[in-house]
Amino acid sequence: MASTVIKGGTVVTADLSYEADVLVEGGVITAIGAGLTGDTVLDASGCYIIPGGIDPHTHLEMPFMGTYSADDFESGTRAALAGGTTMVVDFVLPGQGQGLMDAAQMWHNKSGRANCDYSYHMAITWWGEKVWEGMEDSVKAGITSFKHFMAYKGALMVNDDELFASFRRVGDLGGLAMVHAENGDVVAELTAKLLAEGNSGPEAHAYSRPPQVEGEATNRAIMIADMAGVPLYVVHTSCEEAHEAIRRARQAGKRVWGEPLIQHLTLDESEYFNPDWDHAARRVMSPPFRNKAHQASLWAGLQAGSLSCVATDHCAFTTEQKRFGVGDFSKIPNGTGGLEDRLPMLWTHGVNTGRLTPNEFVAVTSTNIAKILNLYPKKGAVLVGADADLVVWDPAKEKVISAGSQQSSIDYNVFEGQAVKGLPRFTLSRGKVVVHDGEMRTEEGHGQFVGRAPRPAVNRALSAWKELTAPRPVQRSGVPATGV
Ligand code: URP
Ligand code: ZN
Ligand code: ZN
Ligand code: ZN
Q1: Nearest of 334, 350, 394 to residue 83 by alpha carbon
Q2: CB of 166 within 8 A of CB of 124?
Q3: Which of 134, 146, 271, 389 is the most buried (most CB within 10 A)?
Q4: Inter-helix orientation angle 211-228/240-251, to 10°
Q5: Domains annotated on the chain, with CATH
Q6: Cβ–Cβ under 8 Å, residues 380 and 320
Q7: Which UniProt keywords apply (predicted)?
Q8: How confident is the model over 245-271, as pLDDT tens digits?
C-alpha cells in the first residue's frame, strides 16, 4: 500500500502542540512519531499539521427564495479544500409535504460530485405524521441532527407547537436539535412596515432583523429544548443577545452550543450602507451583519468557550440572483459565501491577533464540532486510526482574497481585498493530496458520505430537564403541578 509521510512539522491538535511526523496509509493515519518514512514525503517544515477544517453549516445547490444557491457539491467542496476545510455538513431541505428520506435521496444525487467527505443535517420544514415517521429513518440513515427554522414565515418556519413536538422526537431518537433562531413573526411585521414606508434597499434587511429578534428566539429555543430534554445547537449566532442566552444556558448545565460565522466575526453592518446596491445586496444574509460591539461579544465567546464552532453558512448567490431583490429587499436571496476563506480569515483575525491560540483555532474549526456531531475521532483528530483529513498549515503564507482567484462559482467575494496570513501548504482528503500551494488536485466524486450514530444516553443524562421531571405533587384534577 502506498504511504505518505508528512515530515518536519508541528502537530497541533485541540489539546497539544508537538513535533512529529505523520504517516498516512490507506486514507488513515497509521503512525505519529519521530523518524517515520514513506513512499511520498510532504515537507511540513515551518508548518503546523492540523486536522482538516469541518464546516458544519453549508447550503450547496439548495432551492431557496425562488432560485438555487450557486455553489454545488463540486465547486463548494473544491472551495472548502482550497482553504483547508476537508469536510462539510450540508442541510437536507425537504419541500412542503415531502418525506425526509425522499429529500435525503435528492441530496445524495447531488453530493456524488463532492471532492471531500460530507455529512448532512435534516431540516424540519413542515410538520406531520410523515415527518415524525421519517425522523426515525433519518437517524437510521446516519442523519442525526435536525434543524428548525424559527424564521422565514410562510416558507420554512415552524411554530412553537411544532418545535416542541419535533424537539421531543429528536430527544427520543438520541439526536441533536438545531435552530435558526430569529422570531419570524416579528421579522415579517418589520419587513412589511419597512416596505410600506418606502424602505426597499438592502440596508432595510438589517433593520428588519434586529438583535432582539435573534435574542428572543434563542431564549425561546433554549427553554423549549430544556422542556423537551434535548441538546440544542444554535446556528449562526450573531449578536450579544443570543450569545448571552447561550452563556446563561451553559452556566445552568444545559447542553447548548453556539456557532458564530466567520462573516459575523469579521464584517460589520456598515457593509449595508455602502452606496453601491450590489455591494450591499451581496452581503444580505440572515441574521445580518452586526455592529462592532456584537463582534467583540462573539470573539469573547470563542475565547471563553461559551461559543463553540466557527462556520460559514455558505449559501452563495451570484450578483444576478441578488438582483431579484431590486426594489424589494425581502426578495434578495439570503446568503453569503465563505467556505474557502473561513480558516485563513479566522487565523488572520484570531490567531495572528492573539485572540486565539493555535490549539483553540483547531478546536473551533474542527474538533469541537466533530465531538458535538459524533464524528470524533474519525474526523477532527490527529490520532492513529483517524481519517487522514489533514492540513499542513503554513502560518507565513500570505495572499489577498479576490473573487478572481477563488474556487467558488460566484462572481464576487464578501472578503474581497482582505489580506490573510496563514494558508494551507497541503490539504489531504483521506490521505489524498488535493491541494498543494494553491494548486488544485481535487477529484470529483472522491468525497464520501459520513453517517453518524445517535447518542441517546448523552442526551438524557446531560439535560437539566431530568431534575425538573422528578416526581411532583399531583393536583386534584390529576394533572401534575407546574412550576417549581
Ligand atoms: O441568510 C442565510 N443564512 N441563508 C442561508 C439559509 C439560512 O438561514 O441558514
Ligand atoms: Zn439559517
Ligand atoms: Zn444556513
Ligand atoms: Zn478518490
Answers
A1: 394
A2: yes
A3: 389
A4: 20
A5: 49-443+446-462 (3.20.20.140)
A6: no
A7: Hydrolase, Metal-binding, Zinc
A8: 999 999 888 899 999 999 999 999 999
